[in-house]
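Repro case for the chain-ordering regression, as requested:
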Amino acid sequence: MTTARRPRYLRPPGRTLDAQLHLLDRQVLDVDGVPVTTVDDIEISAPPPDTRIPAGTPAPTLTALLTGPVLGTRIFGGRPPSSRLIRIPWRDVADVGVVIRLGVRGEPLDADWVERWIRDKIIARIPGGRHDPR
Amino acid sequence: MKRLLGVALGVLTAIGGFVDIGDLVTNSVVGSRFGLSLVWVVVVGVVGICVFANMSGRVAAASGRATFEVIRERLGPRAGLANLAASFLINLMTVTAEIGGIALALQLASSVQYLLWVPLAVVAVWLVIWRVRFSIMENVTGLLGLTLIVFAVALFLLKPDWSSLGAQVLAPSVPEQETAASYWYYAVALFGAAMTPYEVFFFSSGAVEEGWTIKDLIQSRINVLVGFPLGGLLSVSIAACATVVLLPAGIAVTSLSQVILPVAEAAGKVGLAFVLIGIVAATFGAALETTLSSGYTLAQFFGWSWGKFRRPAQAARFHLSMIICLLSGAAVLATGVDPVLVTEYSVVFSAIALPLTYLPILIVANDPQYMGEHVNGRPVNVVAMIYLVIILAASLAAIPLMIVTGAGS
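-- result from build under test --
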């Protein structure tokens, strides 16, 4: 509501996204419409905590959607080390609507490794695992 | 013509698909103990499932989002996970009950101990989920389940005193030998049997599976609004058969053989053959639906690729989770626990968990961001709000009633 009354130059360009409302817990589909994951958390380019932020530092930006075990820490608290995060880079996101669409195929993404592993080690080995039901 | 055929098929499938082991057992128990004095609950439950299924089907068609994706988005991860845990466990209990139902019906048909049928039933359910196309699966089990109409036929063959049955329906009262608490306990159970949450997961996910659009909604609405009430009529005839044969004889139903006793008495061997086919088909169909529902809820919460329209290899986690669910159901049955008892508990727990799925769907059905112009109209919302109160009341009353009555005994 307040954005409408602000002077034009202070209004953020483009569409305003609310992380809680539009990103977190949304389904992510790849470029072919295949579900990849749900957005379990997001990563922003914030400076490390407890450091002084000099004036003129650019505002933090959204760098990646996170998935995997980070859901556990989001629910129960704590923070996994940065090296353990499974990221979908924000530049791969093509559209944010009722679902989040990626501009790339989901198959090669890190976020899909469990699916790939279960497919290759278990499901594809059961007879008929690659049978097209239609 | 083809359209008409589609409607007829949909309606018949909805009738046959309405009854599952929960409806069979609960209606029979209630009929044998309370007569027809609880028929009003079936009516309330059927109208409720029509409202609920209609709403979740519309959400799925308008937004392309199935129930559990919506639940997580609306409730956030913490409440969503708690909801998933509750819904999933109760659903798993229902899977177990349905598989037990298949095995018990096959035992009645073959005199081979039901525990020996359990592995066979599990493999058969898995094979259908693995291989058979969604629409074929739906239609075959639904149509075969229609043989349960033999309960209605049996009721006529029994030549009951219609006026006394009618009086029980229209002026319900607690029978002398029963307490008010157990009357209300079974009211909750019957409500839970008619409105099991898995039907809604299945209905909304099925809408996505079959790629419904707003245009298909009219057909789905006819299926629901005609099929479910007729299915409810089938439930009532099960209770009525028990009322006529078992109540005067003082037999309180505790096993599946007692459920089919009235049919055997009225229609003999032919009736028995029909009812056994019907029970196997109905429980088999429900076992498919509940197993798929457990895969749907998990996959939708975690955002996995899901759906029977994909090759199993393209929905690997979805298929693996269903295999694990079937195996756990079989493991529970292998302990020798009575499947009828599992069923009786599963319908009550279904009633307890109902608000968890009902409320998020009601909220999203009113959200223009998802629904566009297809948000709930005012009349739908009035009915939906009344049901919210009923569902909450049933859910809150269930556990105290369970404790007071010793689970209805």
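Ordering looks correct now. Chain A has a mean pLDDT of 84.
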